[in-house]
Amino acid sequence: MKISDESFKKGLEQMKKMGREDTMLDQLQLSDEMYRMSVGMLFGEIWTRGHLSLRERQLITMAANIALSRPNGTHSHYRSAHHIGITHEEICEVMMHVGMYGGWPCIAHATKQYIEVLKERGDPRADEDLVKAPEV
After folding, report:
1. Under 8 Å between Cβ of 84 and 58
2. Can you tell me whether residue 5 is helix, strand or coil?
3. Which helix (H) or strand (E) holds 55?
4. Is the Cβ–Cβ distance between 21 and 15 less than 8 Å?
5. Which CATH superfamily, name and number, covers 52-129?
6. Whole-prediction pTM
């Protein structure tokens, strides 16, 4: 599949808006063609389509990754969500909502991944020493 220079450039610009300039560099390490395809098609064509805002697409993508308990990719979408202004409370709400439809293990998996991102950011909510189980 040949990706046009225009789609590739649009993809790079979209990734920058999302704070994802360093995303998928492992693909570039292996194959320039694979990287160009991912950037150009996914971010240059899909993420820039009309009808849905960047915010809506980010929420949908987080929800899909959470529901499928994706081992990779979800962390970077939490980072992008923060970058474009989606709040901690909104991210948690997506996790809870998806968990009710996708199954409770989705919440457990998503919680672990999101706490890893909060630790990277230095967010005090990631400090497990501050959490105490309620007394009965």
Report:
1. yes
2. helix
3. helix 54-67
4. yes
5. AhpD-like (1.20.1290.10)
6. 0.87
The runs of H, that is alpha helices, within the chain are 5-17, 25-30, 32-37, 54-67, 74-83, 88-102, 104-121
Amino acid at 55: R
Token readout for 3 is 């990706």
Q: Are the C-beta atoms of residues 56 and 49 closer than 8 Å to each other?
A: no
∠124-24-58 over CA atoms, to 5°? Answer: 60
* Contact between residue 5 and residue 44 where contact means Cβ atoms under 8 Å apart: no
Residue 12: both structure tokens together:
């790079």
b/e for 28-57, b at 16 or more Cβ within 10 A? Answer: eeeeeeebbbbbbbbbbeebeeeeeeeeeb
Q: For 41-68, what is each residue's pLDDT tens digit?
A: 999 999 999 999 999 999 999 999 999 9
Phi first, then psi: give them for residue 90, nearest 5 degrees: -70, -40
Token readout for 89 is: 């409370």
Q: Where are the domains of the chain?
A: 1-49, 52-129
3-state class (DSSP) for residue 6 = helix
